[in-house]
């Protein structure tokens, strides 16, 4: 089995959250405005942040949005990383891992039968780890209809047991998204029926092996009462909370109410401010505000390795690669042609993530 990544931005952030008793907000974003709003909020609140994209972002923009997110994370004044949520096909997991820009990928094979789920999760986790990317998995079904998630409405929901959690830990994953009454999409008329005793037992049995992730923090229940439900989940050991409509719904409402009433650029700017405001609230609820200094982020050095004598046409292209080469090595790289990328100008650029 490939060793787990150590110098990884997403891992550094979530590890710090787990150790400090707070939770990093993983903002599910769909456009550049969302990325800008989230990073601005993180800098304003001095909060770490995970920019979270769905596979749709890769398919729709052919990776352009991913690289915009990676660039925003790199330039941010606080710890920021980029994660892919609910990657449900082996082909997309590999495509995203090879694309560059992602620090983490959720390998969501929960729509397969259990044994195939475990097998694929193991194989794809090794694929990601070999490229310096951490992984997340979901052992029990959390039924619902979050964007990019296959329709599981007619499948029986399965709550995660400590034994099941250990089976998934054996796949090598870094983060676990347990099912303990939380669901994607709409909750029933009784609202969330969260089994905190179950969550506590999972936390106790997995501590030091994986960190725990909250899915299903929908606006209807988790976005009210000053984020009381989010805070309760954090107190039981949740270190990463996926946030979607809590910030995206107010953004969409603003657009619908103001489209055609103001100029386009003003509409974009003001809608971005709305999302920033809502994101800052989530950071307070997650107790991540003011925690930027508690994260020790790995350094990233960009190493240029020309394959042709055309240095005047060098194009920088951010990629994720494990690197044993020092800048003075003059182009020696063990993963040349596999993990680095060659630009149209014939220039290969590699990211050295160990700070050497």
From TrEMBL:
It is an enzyme of class 4 (lyase). InterPro entries: Aldolase_TIM (IPR013785), Class_II_FBP_aldolase (IPR050246), FBA_II (IPR000771). GO terms for molecular function: fructose-bisphosphate aldolase activity; zinc ion binding. Binds 2 Zn(2+) ions per subunit. One is catalytic and the other provides a structural contribution. Its EC number is 4.1.2.13. Its cofactor is Zn(2+). One of its GO terms (biological process) is glycolytic process. Keywords: Glycolysis, Lyase, Metal-binding, Zinc. It catalyses: beta-D-fructose 1,6-bisphosphate = D-glyceraldehyde 3-phosphate + dihydroxyacetone phosphate. The keyword Metal-binding applies. Gene3D superfamilies: Aldolase class I. Pathway: Carbohydrate degradation; glycolysis; D-glyceraldehyde 3-phosphate and glycerone phosphate from D-glucose: step 4/4. SUPFAM superfamilies: Aldolase. Catalyzes the aldol condensation of dihydroxyacetone phosphate (DHAP or glycerone-phosphate) with glyceraldehyde 3-phosphate (G3P) to form fructose 1,6-bisphosphate (FBP) in gluconeogenesis and the reverse reaction in glycolysis. This is Fructose-bisphosphate aldolase. It comes from Hortaea werneckii (Black yeast).
């Amino acid at each position: 089995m490939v060793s787990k990544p150590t110098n990884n931005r997403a891992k550094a952030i979530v590890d710090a959250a787990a150790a400090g008793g707070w939770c990093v907000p993983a903002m599910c974003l769909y456009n550049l405005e969302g990325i800008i709003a989230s990073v601005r909020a993180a800098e304003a609140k001095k909060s770490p942040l995970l920019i979270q994209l769905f596979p749709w972002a890769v398919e729709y923009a052919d990776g352009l949005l991913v690289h915009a997110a990676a660039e925003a994370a790199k330039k941010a004044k606080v710890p920021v990383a980029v994660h892919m949520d609910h990657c449900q096909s082996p082909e997309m997991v590999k495509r995203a891992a090879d694309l560059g820009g992602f620090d983490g990928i959720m390998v969501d094979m929960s729509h397969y039968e259990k044994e195939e789920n475990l097998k694929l999760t193991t194989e794809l986790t090794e694929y990601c780890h070999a490229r310096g990317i951490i992984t997340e998995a979901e052992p029990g079904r959390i039924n619902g209809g979050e964007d990019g998630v296959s329709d599981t409405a007619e499948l029986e929901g399965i709550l995660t047991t400590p034994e099941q959690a250990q089976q998934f830990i054996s796949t090598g994953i870094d983060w676990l998204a347990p099912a303990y009454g939380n669901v994607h999409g709409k909750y029933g008329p009784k609202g969330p029926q969260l089994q905190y005793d179950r969550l506590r037992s999972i936390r106790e049995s997995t501590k030091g092996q994986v960190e725990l992730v909250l899915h299903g923090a929908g606006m209807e229940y988790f976005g009210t009462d000053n984020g009381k439900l989010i805070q309760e989940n954090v107190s039981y050991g949740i270190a990463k909370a996926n946030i979607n409509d809590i910030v995206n719904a107010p953004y969409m409402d603003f657009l619908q109410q103001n489209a055609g009433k103001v100029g386009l650029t003003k509409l974009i700017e003001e809608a971005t401010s709305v999302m920033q405001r809502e994101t800052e609230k989530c950071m307070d609820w997650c107790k991540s505000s003011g925690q930027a200094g508690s994260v020790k982020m790995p350094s990233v050095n960009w190493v240029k390795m020309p394959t042709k004598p055309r240095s005047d046409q060098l194009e920088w292209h951010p990629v994720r690669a494990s690197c044993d080469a020092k800048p003075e090595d003059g182009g020696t790289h063990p993963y040349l042609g596999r993990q680095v990328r060659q630009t149209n100008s014939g220039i290969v650029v590699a990211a050295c993530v160990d700070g050497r």
